[in-house]
Amino acid sequence: MLTEYIHAALATATYEILPDNEGFYGKVPKLRGVWANANTLEKCREELREVLEEWIILSLKTGKPIPEIHGVNIDVDQEAA
Questions:
Q1: Which of 7, 10, 35, 73 is most deeply packed, by most CB within 10 A?
Q2: Which residues pair with 72 in a beta bridge?
Q3: DSSP string covering the chain, please?
Q4: How far apart are the C-alpha atoms of 22 and 29, rounded to whole Å?
């Protein structure tokens, strides 16, 4: 479930080249605060994945909703927690 969600979220990511050779910027548009920037596109993708994983953990800890992406969601049985 978690891996599938991460793959779905990263499939929606957008990337752009920053001006003046400042590297790359990437974000997952549907997830507020999930963005990264780095010198190379590959590094930006890696950092974006790390930010996404941290965002998911924080959302689960704080009980914030995690939106569905491409039909994939993270269902947590709150009574089991």
A1: 35
A2: 69
A3: -HHHHHHHHHHT-EEEEPSTT--EEEE-TTSTT-EEEESSHHHHHHHHHHHHHHHHHHHHHHT-----BTTB-----TTT-
A4: 21
Pick the CATH number of 2-11+24-62 from 3.30.930.10, 3.20.20.70, 3.60.15.10, 3.30.160.250: 3.30.160.250
Long-range CB contacts (within 8 A, 24+) of 24-29: 28/52
Asked if residues 53 and 61 have their Cβ atoms less than 8 Å apart, the reply is: no
What pLDDT does residue 80 have?
A: 45
- Burial-class residue 43 by CB neighbours within 10 Å (0-12, 13-18, 19+): middle
Q: Domain coordinates of the chain in residue numbers?
A: 2-11+24-62
